[in-house]
Amino acid sequence: MRTTEEENIGILKTIWKKGENGSWSGHDLQGIDLKPREGFEKDYFKIESEMTLMTQSPGPIMDNLFATFGMTEFLVRQSIVPIVAWNDGDKEMRCIGTGFFISASGLLLTAAHVIRDPVDENYTNLTQVGEKSQRLGNDLRYGILLPANPAMKGAPFLKPSPMHDAKWFMCPFEWALHWGKDHESPLPSQKPEFKLDIDIAVCKVSEHDFIGPYQPLNIGLHNLKLDDKAVAIGYPEMRNIRLNGDDYQPELTVSVGSVTAIYHDNITEKQNSTDGPNFEFNAKIPGKMSGSPILVGGGIITKGVVSRSLGSEANHATGCLISSMMELPLMKGKRLLNLMDDGTEGIAKFVGSGL
User: Residue 149's Cα: distance from chain center in Å?
Assistant: First the structure.
């Protein structure tokens, strides 16, 4: 990945392995160039696919072999995924947004308003279960879609199974967490309105026996500056997917712009309509790209989560700052910074002023 070239777009991916004692360790690093497919402009494009190897030594991670090589689109889709939701008995899954892995264990970030889609669109209900927590309808299901490597089909050393012919795998959520509170209306006839503190959600994707470790993007407490390159990668305008017999494969789109404004104190000063500390950038962001990662600078660190497009302007969007939520409490009081330091989840830690 030639990050010194101003026009180059790329990401840096980490490959992980899990030791016998349950601890995670990095196995390899690999940069992937993202080039426009023929017929697309360099600031908004589908990805030109080229064969790429993620490691030169696959032996220690044979359990994850089929995720370590493939075409560019397939490899990026191992990290950046469609988020789906449905109720028991539904005939199709709703594609509600984009998310991306931040740990080998299955921690994933997306926009909080993506997770709240079932509530906002009235296909689930809420039940208060504590002073600061609510439970969604018992029939509601969330998950993500991972593409299957075409090389799996007919692999001679695999036992015959439905996995041979799989187009994608659906991996369900164990839990999802976002931050906000109900605000009482001055009108007694109106229900309280839920307002987000920050438009970021953290989710835990269940482990999948066949998939092995997930492939995260890299995050960290690194600053961004005005005019930094900002690259959002996600799934615009996805359609819903039938639960039986649907081979639809959402395609990634890369949208390139630059940082035009930064609002570190947006919670108290409310400098724009996006919830929480955020930044604006001048890239095209259609629907369903909410929750996409925003890689800032050379593509090593993901610093933002796509929140929304602003008004009718074609190239005006906001992203929430990941750094602003890394010290917020998650499950059992842990924070992302704790998990990064103690190595229990497989989150890369990058140190350096140039990030």
Answer: 20
What one-character-per-residue DSSP string does 193-233 give?
Answer: EEEEEEEEEEEEEPP-TTT-S--PPP--S----TT-EEEEE
pLDDT tens string 182-236: 877 677 667 777 889 999 999 999 988 777 789 999 998 888 999 999 999 999 9
What is the mean predicted confidence (pLDDT) over 17-28? 81
List Cβ neighbours of 144 (8 Å cut-off, separation of 6 or more).
81, 82, 83, 84, 99, 108, 170, 171, 173, 205
Residue 316 backbone phi and psi in degrees, to 5:
-150, 110
Q: Which of 235, 218, 239, 268 is nearest to 101 (CA)?
A: 218
| Domain boundary assignment for the chain | 10-342
Is it true that domain 10-342 has CATH number 2.40.10.120? yes
Distance of alpha carbon 113 from alpha carbon 118, whole angstroms? 10
